[in-house]
From TrEMBL, chains A, B:
<dbReference type="InterPro" id="IPR006094">
    <property type="entry name" value="Oxid_FAD_bind_N"/>
</dbReference>
<dbReference type="InterPro" id="IPR016166">
    <property type="entry name" value="FAD-bd_PCMH"/>
</dbReference>
<dbReference type="InterPro" id="IPR016164">
    <property type="entry name" value="FAD-linked_Oxase-like_C"/>
</dbReference>
<feature type="compositionally biased region" description="Polar residues">
    <location>
        <begin position="30"/>
        <end position="48"/>
    </location>
</feature>
<keyword id="KW-0285">Flavoprotein</keyword>
<dbReference type="GO" id="GO:0004458">
    <property type="term" value="F:D-lactate dehydrogenase (cytochrome) activity"/>
</dbReference>
<dbReference type="GO" id="GO:0005739">
    <property type="term" value="C:mitochondrion"/>
</dbReference>
<keyword id="KW-0274">FAD</keyword>
<dbReference type="InterPro" id="IPR016167">
    <property type="entry name" value="FAD-bd_PCMH_sub1"/>
</dbReference>
<dbReference type="InterPro" id="IPR036318">
    <property type="entry name" value="FAD-bd_PCMH-like_sf"/>
</dbReference>
<dbReference type="InterPro" id="IPR016169">
    <property type="entry name" value="FAD-bd_PCMH_sub2"/>
</dbReference>
<dbReference type="InterPro" id="IPR004113">
    <property type="entry name" value="FAD-bd_oxidored_4_C"/>
</dbReference>
<feature type="domain" description="FAD-binding PCMH-type">
    <location>
        <begin position="127"/>
        <end position="306"/>
    </location>
</feature>
<dbReference type="Pfam" id="PF02913">
    <property type="entry name" value="FAD-oxidase_C"/>
</dbReference>
<keyword id="KW-0560">Oxidoreductase</keyword>
<dbReference type="InterPro" id="IPR016171">
    <property type="entry name" value="Vanillyl_alc_oxidase_C-sub2"/>
</dbReference>
<protein>
    <recommendedName>
        <fullName>D-lactate dehydrogenase (cytochrome)</fullName>
        <ecNumber>1.1.2.4</ecNumber>
    </recommendedName>
</protein>
Length: 559, 559
């Protein structure tokens, strides 16, 4: 047990005296709320590549108008001639319909490129469209009239929420009209007994969560982009994020959806009932439908009670086998209070250490690290469960070393070692990024095999002659969701050829998913066949054709 | 506090001494599993009417061959001439395909009525079809070949699992071929790390749960019919039951579905991934689709850890307002360990007392009773939380009296006061039964208003001149799910006219559901308009037509 004195000595000291050790931990953490913390600057689940002003991978982020057009990055995409080109007459219709000047950004009859650019390009500065018209309806009825007109006139559209997606789904490719939901931002009702919230699609996630916080509840989704993303977009992309392990997916939480279909009809399925077995559960098609069959305008969602007690522990472990053992024990012993089990390999943690220049939470180096969070209703009980769990994993040498946050500041500090990875990964240049679901027992194998493959090809090295800096892995272990990342000094066709389709084939062989939580959008559309059979793809196309026979909804994407 | 000494005195005694009071409670219940108990003789969520041998409502259940045909009970249903009548040639095809004699019950070329009757009628003895052919495929491929043939030959079919449904969905109306899944009963895999089970649709729920029990896990659905119902049927009907409050619905738990479509194609969506954002979530249409667009052949489902500590408390309360307060407090204080909150009105409890002849759990009479169950990983912690909660609800006079089970026998005994209601309700004769979702704050109003309405109409009374014995309510309060029941001495058109469509209109006005968990089947099909708009019904019909253009799947039902 020489290797792992920290927790154990802490536990003993806690038992023997009331002295709180300066860095070591006692097991009565104060009751604090992680969910009230300010949002991380980048998405916890994001893999951005932000080209610099020269289109390279270093330096300051490029201004929007220098971003490469998606139509150039994806030359195989061609504008579909069936779509009408927008005219001043069309603009006039929308201006008359929406009234307020702030609801129509018109780049057709005048130059509005400066105003429009933010709607044409995404926050990663990776995608850029050519739209000349942005509409901001204020009501479901306005959305309905817009879509009816677009459908009748063969005008293509892109629904847009907070525009924080990662696969290019929320910006146009060509001249599709952007329908931005930001003006539909009202919370309509909240029932404190049942915990059911009804709100507009354009409500910002953080606003919804803050509102619920005031009522002792929590939105069952959390992610780094919460300050910008909208709950309608979250539902449309079936966002996963940090609370899924505990509260499950939107397919279970969302009780009702109001959506406008391409022909303008309103699917009024805004049930506020936990149970309602009266026909096909059509709203489910819109959860993760990425705006390709309609626009979500309102949602009804069941929200859990906010946990007054939150604990965070951070471990070092000697192998992926140990990580799996720790996960199994955490599920068993922490059971109903386990709210996150995040995996970070040693390379990601050294990267954060190097880029941010702050000392590692644990002494020495470990090949793997885990962050465990518990959320419960009773701080004493949770502390005791965690103590017992920590004793077990230390005494059985499952975990080599660990630290337990003692207050909210430490909780936030430990989370930065998970949430800071994304930001730090871009530090050396660009990053090739994959968001994958893989059966847990094989999850980290992909990182090792990718590293071996690129190393054998002579692509990985410490100096500029090698394009690849490293191959790292982290992710939502509790959900079987790996983020495989390959930080590079420059984007390089040889690297790309070594990675694809090899990575997708590797995932396919294990019946994994090539997009665990990010969705399909533009980037994954060509690869869906690695995760879905021909029959499934045919059935999905049937649904698309059924709801959107003219194909005006978010074209060039998804399916 | 004079009214409510039981819990409080118990708590004080526990604190002051180690004497365990004979009937009162100590708060260190032994760790026991309710889920291992033998299944209740009837469904906890069922409302059967079992006509006696004379077609009346008293006496021994009628033999199957005396049950009234559904086609007679619902004369508005007419056999659709588009369906081919089954011939010996068809039977020959199925015999050649399925080989084994036990896989085809042939009532076409010979008299097999005795063997067939069990498949033609339901366990409530309320529905009875005219089929002359039952098929029992052993594999997905056989199901595929059967459906392809039926589709090409316009032969109508009824998928059948354990045949424990409550709305006539699993038996034929006319001569539809029964496709029974009982031979597809294998468990294919279980991953102890992720908790993901893959199994055939025909696995009996109790077998699945027992298998999982051996692995320290639990099936996320429990209901009284568990000894007969099949998991494929559970998913096809989106069964709710007793664990929904804690583990959520199948829309969140079911990760994958393999289903055969009417044209014989196999929808291979048997994902074992918690997260998989690669296209429309089509399997959701089959969850609660009641076998009208395909036959579920396998499911993949995420199963939680089995809770080693289970507690059950039983309360008496003075008003529905008090019940709501108790529910609010239970959600807040018991939070992550609350696994059931069941409501029973005083009338149901007196009925169980009278019919079963056993003493009430509490002294005196209360207008309302609740049963609360907790399930957690630590008996001491759960006991403490419950103790604190009980102190609170007693001291604040939210609860008038209560009892806490001290061991597994007492847990089962208290559950009989909830689960025994269904059985006892039929004691005086027939029962008119409704399974409704209603916003919680208005949930019990319907019972009072129905009672007033029938009383004002002179239909309720203590003697034989009145058809109605009583109007009672109970249900899954935690899910907003009320079972409104009207026990009667005889079925009576005047009573029916007083009830319908009034009950449905009442529910519609509150945006409730006319079928919370039982589904549509034959009985609710005409009433779906009370819970779904015209647009929704049109969209649902689109889906039906898309998947089953010939309409061969489970006709005369659902939509």
């Amino acid at each position: 047990m020489a290797i792992s004195a920290r927790f154990v000595s802490s536990l003993r000291r806690t038992a023997l005296s009331s002295r709180a050790p300066s860095r070591l931990q006692c097991f009565r953490p104060t009751s604090q709320l992680r969910w009230n913390s300010t949002p991380a600057p980048t998405s916890a689940t994001s893999e951005p590549h932000q080209p610099d002003a020269e289109g390279g991978v270093k330096g300051k982020a490029a201004p929007a108008n220098t971003i490469k057009f998606t139509s150039e990055s994806y030359p195989q995409l061609q504008r579909d001639d069936k779509f009408t080109k927008i005219t001043e007459e069309h603009v006039k219709f929308f201006q008359d319909l929406l009234g307020s000047e702030s609801s129509v950004i018109d780049g057709v009859s005048k130059d509005a490129s400066e105003d429009i650019e933010a709607y044409n390009s995404d926050w990663m500065r990776k995608f850029r469209g050519h739209t000349k018209l942005v509409l901001k309806p204020s009501s479901t009825e306005e959305v309905s009239k817009i879509l009816k007109y677009c459908n009748e006139n063969m005008l293509a559209v892109v629904p847009q929420g907070g525009n924080t997606g990662l696969v290019g789904g929320s910006v146009p490719v060509f001249d599709e009209i952007v329908i931005n939901l930001q003006k539909m931002n009202q919370i309509h009702s909240f029932d404190e007994v049942s915990g059911i919230l009804v709100a507009d699609a354009g409500v910002i996630l953080e606003n919804a969560d803050n509102y619920l916080g005031g009522k002792g509840h929590v939105f069952p989704l959390d992610l780094g982009a919460k300050g910008s993303c909208q709950i309608g977009g979250n539902v449309a992309t079936n966002a996963g994020g940090l609370r899924l392990l505990r509260y499950g997916s939107f397919h279970g939480n969302v009780l009702g959806v109001e959506a406008v279909l391409p022909d303008g009809s309103i699917m009024d399925d805004l049930s506020k009932l936990r149970k309602n077995n009266t026909g096909y559960d059509l709203k489910q098609l819109f959860i993760g439908g990425e705006g390709t069959i309609g626009i979500i305008t309102k949602i009804s969602i069941i929200c859990p009670r906010r946990s007054p007690a939150v604990n965070v522990a951070y471990f070092g472990l000697e192998s992926y086998e140990h990580v799996q053992q720790a996960f199994r024990e955490a599920k068993g012993q922490l059971s109903e209070i386990l709210s996150a089990f995040e995996l970070m390999d040693g390379r990601t943690q050294k990267l954060v250490n190097r880029v941010k220049g702050k000392p590692m939470p644990l002494e020495g180096e470990h090949p793997f690290y885990c962050l465990i969070e518990t959320s419960g209703s009773n701080a004493d009980h949770d502390g005791e469960k965690l103590e017992k769990f920590l004793e077990y994993v230390m005494e059985n040498e499952i975990v080599s070393d660990g630290i337990l946050a003692q207050d909210q500041t430490q909780i936030q500090e430990l989370w930065t070692w998970r949430e800071g990875i994304t930001e730090c990964l871009g530090h050396d240049g660009g990053v090739y990024k994959y968001d994958l679901s893989i059966p847990i027992h094989e999850l980290y194998d992909l990182v090792n095999e990718t590293r071996d493959r690129l190393t054998e090809a002579g692509l990985v090295g410490a100096d500029d002659s090698h394009p690849v800096v490293d191959v790292v892995g982290y992710g939502h272990m509790g959900d079987g969701n790996l983020h495989l990342n390959i930080p590079v000094r420059r984007f390089d066709k040889t690297v790309e050829k070594a990675l694809e389709p090899w990575v997708y084939e590797w995932v396919q062989k294990r019946n994994g998913s090539i997009s665990a939580e990010h969705g399909l959008g533009v980037t994954k559309k060509p690869y869906v066949g690695y995760s879905k059979s021909e029959t499934m793809i045919k059935l999905m196309k049937q649904i698309k054709d059924l709801y959107d026979p003219n194909g005006i909804m978010n074209p060039y994407k998804y399916i």
